[in-house]
Task: structure prediction
Amino acid sequence: MKNYNVTGGGDVQIHVAEAGNPEGQPLLFIHGVSQCRLAWKRQFESDLTDDYRLVAMDLRGHGLSEKPIEGYGDSKLWADDVNAVIEGLDLTRPVIAGWSYGPLVIFDYIRHYGEENIGGINIVGGITKLGTEEAASVLTPEFLALVPGFFSTDVDEAKCALESLLKICFAKELSEDDLSFMRDYNVAVPAYVRKGMFTRSFDNDDLLPKISKPVLITHGTLDSVVLPAVVDQHRFGLPHAEVHMIEDVGHAPFWEDTSTYNQRLRAFASSLL
Result:
C-alpha cells in the first residue's frame, strides 16, 4: 500500500491510497458522505490488485484529508480535488467508481474538466441530484429520518445517527468488528462537513445526456438508503448505461457481495481497453 497527499481545490491536502499492479488499468474509488478510502477495503484486499492499479481518495473533510470549515458547496473545489488525484498520480483514463454521494463528485469533475481524461464511470448505490423533492423521492424514510443527527454537534447524538446509518447500509447484520471499524472513520468526520455536503441543492440533468463515456450502474436490490428506483432517474439521463442489480444486498454491494461486484467491475473495465 502506498499513500500520498495531493493538493486539491483551494490548496486543501487530499489523501490518496494506492495498491495493486502499477502498470495496470487504473480504478479510482470515491466514497460517500462520512466514509473514507477504507470503505473500499475489500477491493484493495482482492484479486483486483493482480491486474489493476487501485486508487482510493479521502474526500475533503474525510479520512486523512484536510478538513476545511467551508467550501463543501462549491462544485469547482470538488472537481479540482478529483483532477488533482488524476493528474498527481498520472492516472491514464481511469474507471471512476463513486458510491452513494460519490457520483455527485464525479459529475462535479466532468462538469468542470470534461470526460476526456477518464475511461468510464461506475455509479454504485449512487445519486445524481440533491436538495430537491425529486432528489429526495429516491431516498428512504429511514435514511431521511437520520439526517438531522448527522448535523448535530452533540457527539453522542451524531454517533448514534451514524451508527444507525451504517446498520441500514447493509442487508445483513454487520459483525461487531466491522461495525466498530466503520464507526470509527464515520465519527471522525466533523458535523460541519456532512452539513455542507447535504445542504447542496442541484441536479445533473443538463450534464448526463452529454456524457458519452461508458457507464455501469450498480445497485443492491435491498438498498435501504437509496431506493433501486433511482436507476430509472439515471437511465433517463444516461440511456447508454449498463445496469447491474445485485440480488439480496443493500447500499454497499461492493462490501456485501464483493465477489459479484468485483467480477462485474472487472468485466466493465476490461471492455474499455
